[in-house]
Amino acid sequence: MKQIFVTGGVVSSLGKGLTAGALGALLEGHGFRVELKKFDPYLNLDPGTMSPLQHGEVYVLEDGTETDLDLGHYERFTHAVLGRKHSLTSGRIYESVLQKERSGEYLGQTVQIIPHVTDAIKERLRAVDEQADLCITEIGGTIGDIESLPFLEALRQFALEQEREDVIFLHLTLLPYLRAAEELKTKPTQQSVAKLREIGIQPDILVCRTEREISPDVRRKISLFCNVSPRAVVEERDLQDSIYELPSVLHREQLDALVLERLDLRPRRAYEDIWSGILRRIREPCCHSRIGLVGKYVSCKDAYKSVYEALAHAGIALSCRVEIRVIDAEALESPGAAELLKDLDGILVPGGFGTRGIEGKIFAADWARERGIPYLGLCLGMQLAAIAFARRVLGWPDAHSVEFDPQSAHPVIRRLDSQRETASLGATMRLGSRTCLLKTGSLAHRLYGEEEIFERHRHRYEFNREMEEAFESQGMLISGRCPDDGAVEILEFPQHLYYLAVQFHPEFQSKPWQAHPLFLGFLQAALDRARDHA
Ligand code: GLN
Asked: Yes or no: is domain 285-532 CATH 3.40.630.30?
């Protein structure tokens, strides 16, 4: 198994996850099967309990693991289906070491970072998919952070134990441009590479984020001071139109050729480029649509990452430029609300937790239903569509979710049975992929073109099945159910072109080359309605 380790230096947010994902895409283009892992140095066991405002969205894998949003990039750039072993934090490593210590497995030894913690990390590095040819592992954080030291030490040891051509280190760094000097500055890169070398890691490839072209002189300088060949200084210019440019940018820079050469691999087939076609559609849209996303975590651009991407994928499929208007749900609770929702072709309410902004989202769900504007509700967005319907159409003004009003006489959304006994907040939700059966002839069924589907979940509350009859009597259709217990997974309002709300998170399964059917249907409906109203 060949391994590629991706580290980052100088500053955070350089796009290590995107670079790792794009490299995975290139290697798939050459016929290799790749898997991707992320090791995060923080102490949380997983990001499940972290606020999306701080850390961006929590991405959910098929097996229910709650992970960092970079795993979303990996799954969107490649065909890899990731699981628990692909996401690791220091917290998890320490947890396993401490459990071993308590059960006496260290036989009286003093338990230390080296070798016990590093051994535990190396064990995780060795846990790879048998079918994969290559594994790309990204180390979160920035070189120089205290927390990442045990990981880097483990990588150094691991590399030492492997054949030279089986492991390479790729370091992502920044070349800031100083306007006053009219120069790209290489010192921060030199220093971060020096820090890596201090630990005993010599990067094989430097990928340099830059807003300008790297001149041959600068390239030579980086090569000399950082001890890499000039060819291994790869320019990663800021992207213009879309993150999906990245595979093509890195291919032009011959990163893939370089990686294969260093790993002593020959391409399995002529390079298959799926990205140029995708880019052409992004750059030459033939229509435009304005979608309102009504959310709570609007100040963080990563909080709804997968939702934005899934909308973009539908745009790619329909050659449509999707303009997303991000609307703060709380702002819909004051008099200017109508102004904010004006001129939208579609409204999307994504998932969320906690009371803030709830009434604003309910307002948006009503607004769409009452005007026939295409509506897509995801998880919380489904629960709130149900509450909106119960209040306005069924005439239960106190209808609510017990998450927000435990005393409501009309608890339209109730706690899941499995959740009644749980007080802990970590990894205790209904998580991961579940089967859902679709009602024949429903909108959902037409869009998926299948009767049985699998979607990822992350929730604690569910539609109250005692209310089903009342909902259906007034025209709400339950079009998807979990076959195990009959739980309601999809609500739709067939009187409208597209009013559909799902208990799961379809955004986690959308791909740039294959938009998710629900997002595709939503955008198509938004376009159709706009055309009819033009
Ligand atoms: N807060 C809701 C629940 O726990 C919705 C969760 C979500 O949107 N992911 O059921």
From this structure: no
